[in-house]
Amino acid sequence: MIHILFGLSGAGSLKMALKAMRVHKIEQIIAFGDIFSIGPVRMLHEKAGQDVRFQWMKNVMNDEDGDFQDYQQWFYNTVNQIHSIPVNVPITIWVADNSHEQTGLRYVLYLLRDKTNKIKVINTTKAHAVHFNRPDIQYTVLKTGEISPEKLQVIYEKGQSKSLSVHERKELEEEWLALADTKETLRIWRNEKIKGVKEDYYDQYMINMAKKLQIEREREQEPEKFMKSARLIGEVIGYLDQYMGDAFFEYRLRKLIEKGVFEMEGNLKAMRYYSVRLAKG
After folding, report:
1. Do 36 and 171 belong together in one domain?
2. Which ranges in the chain belong to alpha helices (H)?
3. CA distances from 264 to 77, 190, 233, 268 (A)
4. Which member of 27, 94, 95, 216 has the lowest number of beta carbons within 10 Å of its beta carbon?
5. What is the pTM of this model?
6. Same domain, 211 and 187
C-alpha cells in the first residue's frame, strides 16, 4: 500500500499511526510539501507549468532560510515517486475538504491516469465527522494535518471506502484539466468545488482583522502602536474557514504595505522581523 498526502504534518501523523499498527515497514508514504491552494497550477503536469509555478513562489514568498531550492527538488522528487509507483500496488489518497488537498487530489490522479492501480480516497473531513463528532461537539476538520495519529489510525482501520471507478477517476482527471487551464493564483473550497478567486480576495478581511485588533489594543491601553505581523497573520488564519498557509498572507500583507494601506517598522526580510499598523487617513 502507498499513501499519498498533501502536507508534511499529516504525513508525519500518518507515519506514527502506521507504526502503531505495525505496518510502517510495508506501507509507504508519499507527501507533497507544497500548498496547492496558492500559486499558479496552469499546466502543472508539464515542465513549463512547473517552471511558472516555481518562479511565482520564488517571487512572492519570503525565502529567509534559502530553502527554495529544497522546495523545488522536493516537488520533483514527489512527482517522480508518483510516476514510479508499481502497477500492482494499491494507493490511498488522503484529503480534507480544502482547496489545497482537493487540487492536489486531482493533480495526482491525472499523473496516475495511465496506471491501473486500485485507488482509494479517504476524505478526512467527512471521516472525522463520522467517527468523532458528538451531538454536543461539532468540529469541522480543515486539513488532514490537524488530525492526531490516534484518530488517523481509527479512520484508517474503520474506513470502508471503495476504490475509485474508472468513471470517477476520469471525472476527476477532467476536473484537473479544467484547473490546469486557469490563471488564478488563489483557490478556495466552496460548495464541494474548487473556485479560483483574485489574489487580493482576502485583503479586506485582513484589513478588518487589523482594525479589530487595534481597537482591542486601544481598549486595553497597550502603549505599542505597531503589532507584530505574525500576530495579525495568526489571527487571520485562526478565523478562516480555508487553508492557504501563513506565507501567502504574509505576501499579501507586504503588498498592502507597498500600497500604503499599512505602515511598518522593522525589516521585511521575514515575518518575525517587522510590525505593522493601519495607515492613518
Report:
1. yes
2. 8-20, 47-60, 68-83, 99-111, 124-132, 149-158, 166-179, 203-219, 229-238, 246-258
3. 39, 34, 14, 9
4. 216
5. 0.89
6. no
